[in-house]
Queue: 4 jobs
Job 1
Amino acid sequence: MAQERTGVATAQGNPLTLVGPELKVGDKAPDFKVSKNLLEQASLADYAGKVKLISVVPSLDHTGVCDAQTRRFDKEAAKLGNNVVVLTVSVDLPFAQSRWSDAEGIDNVIILSDYKDRSFGQSYGVLIKEIQLLMRSVFVIDADNTVQYVEYVGEMTEHPNYENAVAAVKALV
């Protein structure tokens, strides 16, 4: 049975249970399988040799903070160079992700879906047991797949610390 953590996250003040381990700086980044679209999958190995900023959001559709978080990291990604990849992971269906991304002009972030088996959510400790969405968080992983920055946002409706995440990436390139 997967590890469960309670009392570390809330949604509008209501406690949530996160499934999976709490990653820490220095941990080896866990592998995962997510969907690029309905037919193609992606894993950590697909981004080998690059610094990875992984932005995790509950849902891109109809949530202002998720929208703002993805837009902010899309702008930052344009300035980080070719040795950095910025990924946004949610459990939205790939159709919805593509529609949203196209409508919003997101060009620099790769948007991935964990809808099939919640592999990412369970491996990174961000799967919310009660609602099967992913908890807002940010991970920076170096080119050797070692975790260099972790932020589990304690309240689902709050923004992550964009400046600290970007500074962690810049320190690696």
Note: The chain has a mean pLDDT of 95.
Job 2
Amino acid sequence: MSTERPLRADARRNRERILQAARHAFAAEGIGVPLDEIARRAEVGPGTVHRHFPTKETLFEAVVVEHLEQLTRDARAALQADEAGSAFFAFLIRMTGEADAKQDLADAIAGAGANLGSATLQVAADLREIFASLLKRAQRAKVVRADVDAADVQAIVLAALTAQRQRADTTRPDRLAALVFDCLRPNDPVARRQG
């Protein structure tokens, strides 16, 4: 039984303002943003930030967990889609675009930044499990090569993210990721059209 009391309405609002400011700050600048700057952007005092999030790593982790939970929901939705290949590749493009737009998620995916706690590691493990199911489904539909596993795909996602950052093509932001992800498609031209 939890002994933690629910937050008062004003404390909940302050916590959400801090999280929102942190989301934007971390997305734009990564984990290097000082807590005092996040407090300023949230229009609360530094003490308020520290009451909710004792360290910057705690706040960073809360933001990362939100992202991972959203990606997990998206992966579950992709599992329900009619077309396994389209759903799989659309999820990869979305995940890469999200990571590119949000530096904090890119830090987490690359293993940079803070040491993540057990709750975050559990959310990440859930996402990996659902993603592995999404991959297997696409492989059963023969729209993804059978000789790759989830760890291969994670490395390919990081490669796509690096390629997009190097090229910085704002007119066609997903183009390089799509080119990199082409390596996951089988050599069969019929299967390529279906994915």
Note: The mean pLDDT is 83.
Job 3
Amino acid sequence: MSLIGTEVKPFKAQAYQNGRFVEVTEENFKGQWSVVCFYPADFTFVCPTELGDLQDQYETLKSLGVEVYSVSTDTHFTHKAWHDSSETIGKITYLMIGDPTHTISRNFDVLIEADGLADRGTFIIDPDGVIQTVEINAGGIGRDASALVNKIKAAQYVRKNPGEVCPAKWQEGGATLKPSLDLVGKI
């Protein structure tokens, strides 16, 4: 079953951010746009490249009113240890949520049960706490945060402009479409 259009399910977890531990719940995803980025595990290989790339786009995302949350099945203590020992991860300023109970990973349907690890899943959540996009990658395929920025801009545009849709490769300021009977078979 698709998670698109569903509200984020309840959870409570601990996260690491900027030298402190904080509690996070599904309520954090309301009132603003959110990106939730699941990854398999701390102290691995592809994961730090993705999380570092996400940090490189963090100021741009914040300027769009987006908060970022990374999630793995590690604990918040492990996130701190990784943050303290990795140059790339040490630059991260967004929340790193620990999910050792697998509750969040199950809620978002990214848990690899046999391994106790999360798939590479990216979710864009609107200010109502409703999931608008889902992207799942195989473990060996890293994600590109600049593509995520464009998806968020499109999601925000569609929310602000009911009745319009963003075509493939849409860029901010580009032409949109207004679905109607007149367009059927003409694109």
Note: The mean pLDDT is 95.
Job 4
Amino acid sequence: MAKILKIYPQNPQENLIDEAVKVLQNGGVIIYPSDTIYTIGCDIYNHKAMERLAQIKGIKIDKHKFSIICNDLSHLSEFTKPIETSTFRFLKNHLPGAFTFILEANRNLPTSYKGHKTVGIRVPDHIVPQMIVEKLGHPIVSTSIHSDDEILEYSTDPELIAEKYDKLVDLVIDSGYGDNTASTIVDLTSGEPEILRQGKGIL
């Protein structure tokens, strides 16, 4: 059964953040809030956890398009090819925010990203995932929670999410109701921003 931790953005308790980080360090899969929708994620460097995540999504590990969640732009050089100063300024102007930016990947990506030529980078404007990444010391990954409900594209109620994923994940972080609009996906691989999916973020 998944454990539920109530961590609210107004006053996130460090001991609860530490508990979430410990789950990740032990190879766990967690559901956590962001500035858009609730997402499922794990430690980017734990291949077994990444395989579990792919299994939950019903895809093969080599077919995944999981975004990388950072707490700032300092991790960019670890995963992406060098970017132009103008592109960096563009990113800095829009992050943290409700965007997923597609950039060219370098060869230092973790094993689970083998063969990926591009990678999606997220810096959510939400204190909980920011604190988790900071405490963990490196990024986590993100993939959206889809709802079977035809009206809402994504699940917003953390209690219903916990009920649905109870036997699939190790931890659900309840930060209150989430949004039902996903991030805006912007391709920056050509140097000029191209919107691939319009979501919550407005350029």
Note: The longest strand covers residues 99-104.
